[in-house]
Every structure is written in structure tokens, then in C-alpha cells.
């Protein structure tokens, strides 16, 4: 069987079959109401980003991931299906064994561990930023949904976690953009 190239990241090939496999096993959660074409595009972009990030992780030494963490994420993917048998059938259609899916999970978790080690310690959220967000966007969103606004002291940690998460995602996006700018990325499969 001849496979088509979906994208080339420097010399690393991402095939149309790989995109199809990831779609079949729901490796990346699909957005509600998203079309198949948009979903496949997002999967391809995720595979490109993952390839770029993992290459950077390998340069600094990929951390070993505990088997229970791999199994937990594997089960999270399985839960995207109505029944375990549906997941097994999807793996079979995708021509992936459970161990191959676990290897994909391990790679993803290695990137996540690297991100937590490299970026998370540098993210700081001040009390003033928490208070400003509480008085602005956070309270406004709650009012729009008809929810009460608890005192700041009751939600400080929730807001701190949210702001840290947003900043971490911004750092990940910036890092990925830098990695992509230094790489030769050619996309051949359009939608």
C-alpha cells in the first residue's frame, strides 16, 4: 500500500495514515460540532507541533514516564468511546496495537513533563493580577451566566490556577512558534 505524505517536518514524514489513525482512536479530543475536515486539520497541526516539541525534548533528554501515568492517559483516551470494545475496534481499524497507542501516549507525556519542568516554574501570578482578573473578566463571566460572585478569598486559588494555566499555554504556543520558525515544515494534505 502506498501512503501519502500529509506533512514534512524537516526530514520527518507525517503520513495521511497517521492522521487517520489519530482520528480513528480519538487520540486528540475533537471539538464539539467540528467538521471532519477541520478535525483532521487540527490533528495534523497537533502532530506537527508534537514532532517539533519532541525533537526539542530529545535534545535535553526525555524523562522516563511511570507506567501508571501511561495507563491512566490510555484509559482517558478509551473513555472517549461509549464502551471499551468500541475503543478496541477503533484501534483495530487504525491498525494500532494497545502497546503502540501506549508508546504514543508515553511520547506525549514526555513532552508534557518537559513543559512542566521547563516553563511552569517561571510562571508567577501576583495577588494584584488575581484581584484585577476577579474584578474584571471573572466576575463579568459569572454575571453573564447568572451565577453569584463569591468573595475573592474563596476563589483566589481557582483564579491563580486559571491564570497560570493561561500563561503556560501562551508559553507553549510561543515555544512551538519558535520551533516551527527554525524548522522546515511543508504541509501537503490540505483538509
Structural summary, described in words:
It is a single chain. This protein has 191 residues and is mainly alpha-helical. It has one domain: Porin chaperone SurA, peptide-binding domain (Triger factor/SurA peptide-binding fold), CATH 1.10.4030.10. Helix content is 66%, strand content 6%. The chain is built from seven helices and three strands. The chain has a three-stranded antiparallel sheet with strand order 2-1-3. Strand 1 and strand 2 form a beta hairpin. Helix 2 crosses helix 5 and helix 6 crosses helix 7. The chain is globular and about 60 Å long. It starts with a strand and ends with a strand. The mean pLDDT is 93.
Entry keywords:
191 residues; mainly alpha; Triger factor/SurA peptide-binding fold; three-stranded antiparallel β-sheet; 7 helices; 66% helix
Topology:
Blueprint: E1 5-9, E2 12-15, H1 16-24, H2 36-60, H3 67-78, H4 84-93, H5 98-118, H6 127-144, H7 152-182, E3 185-187
Antiparallel strand pairs: 1-2, 1-3
Amino acid at each position: 500500500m502506498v501512503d501519502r505524505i500529509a506533512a514534512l517536518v524537516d526530514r520527518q514524514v507525517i503520513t495521511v495514515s497517521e492522521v487517520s489513525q489519530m482520528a480513528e482512536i480519538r487520540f486528540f479530543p475533537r471539538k464539539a460540532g467540528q467538521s471532519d475536515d477541520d478535525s483532521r486539520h487540527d490533528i495534523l497541526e497537533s502532530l506537527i507541533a508534537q514532532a517539533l516539541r519532541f525533537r526539542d525534548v530529545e535534545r535535553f533528554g526525555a524523562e522516563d514516564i511511570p507506567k501508571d501515568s501511561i495507563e491512566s492517559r490510555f484509559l482517558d483516551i478509551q473513555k472517549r468511546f461509549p464502551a471499551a470494545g468500541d475503543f478496541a475496534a477503533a484501534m483495530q481499524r487504525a491498525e494500532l496495537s494497545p502497546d503502540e497507542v501506549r508508546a504514543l501516549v508515553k511520547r506525549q507525556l514526555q513532552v508534557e513533563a518537559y513543559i512542566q519542568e521547563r516553563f511552569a516554574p517561571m510562571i508567577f501570578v501576583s495577588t494584584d493580577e488575581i484581584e484585577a482578573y476577579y474584578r474584571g473578566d471573572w466576575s463579568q463571566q459569572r454575571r453573564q451566566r447568572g451565577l453569584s460572585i463569591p468573595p475573592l478569598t474563596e476563589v483566589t486559588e481557582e483564579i491563580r490556577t486559571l491564570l497560570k494555566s493561561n500563561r503556560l499555554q501562551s508559553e507553549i504556543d510561543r515555544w512551538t512558534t519558535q520551533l516551527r520558525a527554525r524548522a522546515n515544515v511543508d504541509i501537503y494534505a490540505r483538509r
